[in-house]
Amino acid sequence: MKKTAITLAAGALLASMAFAGSAFAQDYPTKPITVVVPFSAGGPTDTVARLVAEVMSQDLGQQVVVQNVGGAGGTLGAGQVAVAQNDGYTLLLHHIGMSTAPTLYRSLPYDPTTDFAPIGLITSVPMTLVARKDFEPNTMAELLDYVKANGEDITYAHAGIGSASQLCGMLFMNAVDAQMTTVPYQGSGPAMTDIIGGQVDLICDQTTNTTSQIQAGEVKAYGVTSPERLGNLPDLATTAEGGLELEIGVWHGLYAPAGTDAAIIERLEAALQVALANETVISRFAELGTVPVTAEEATPAALTETLTSQIELWKGVIEAAGVYAD
Ligand code: ASP
Fold it and tell me: Rounded to the nearest whole angstrom, what is the distance from the C-alpha of residue 186 to the centroid of ligand 1?
């Protein structure tokens, strides 16, 4: 008898908790949402986040605020979101680094596949090899020879181990079979400032962060890592055209901490799709050589699929290169 009463009370409590949860999800959002970008302000991931966040804010009726938590190649910010409250008010916008970090870091404090609830893919974007404008080589062929001859005398900037620029640099050095001196930053925004200022020699970075500098002649560009030339930079040859086998597309995704209510994920997914269909977002992305995904790809299923397959893909490449953060 006593047991039945307890069971009933527990059942009632559970039911009321579930009701409170769904009522909470129905009202969502009732306050500003933070999107953590795990790199510095002014870089390409930050640019993608700010463009998308503005339209998501309008759609959700609450401010979507970008917070830059740079450090450790994006793993610091991702680690913070992995343990944040799963109430829909702290999200993560990250890139391909979600799939490389599990192999690069032997002791990563989070698991990208279990500590996050994927919301959707956002964009894919190629990278460009660019240097300070007075860097000696003028063409891709000259660059390849120059790196082979001068190796460690050359400074290569990247956004930390786990970043796209580090991945691209690693692939580049492997292809050329030479080591350059690497200079880590908390994001490629500040790295680009130093390239323009002439403090470092070379970087491989998303076109989101290099297009205007290339167009303005502030940097010297050698090639784009896409299979075809880009509409926004038609004069820039592909890496393959320049004799370098290096193809890489950086993808971005939006995540919540694992265990976030399914109704909240759905609401965020819908807002993300609205942002990616927005004319201003589409045309700004086009100017920057960044391609927004389709509505079918801006979904938890597509992001889960990409994340899982990319972890496998990069595992093989990184293990073959033998590059680790610790
Ligand atoms: N583009 C950077 C990277 O190399 C990160 C950033 O600042 O967005 O991953």
Answer: 8
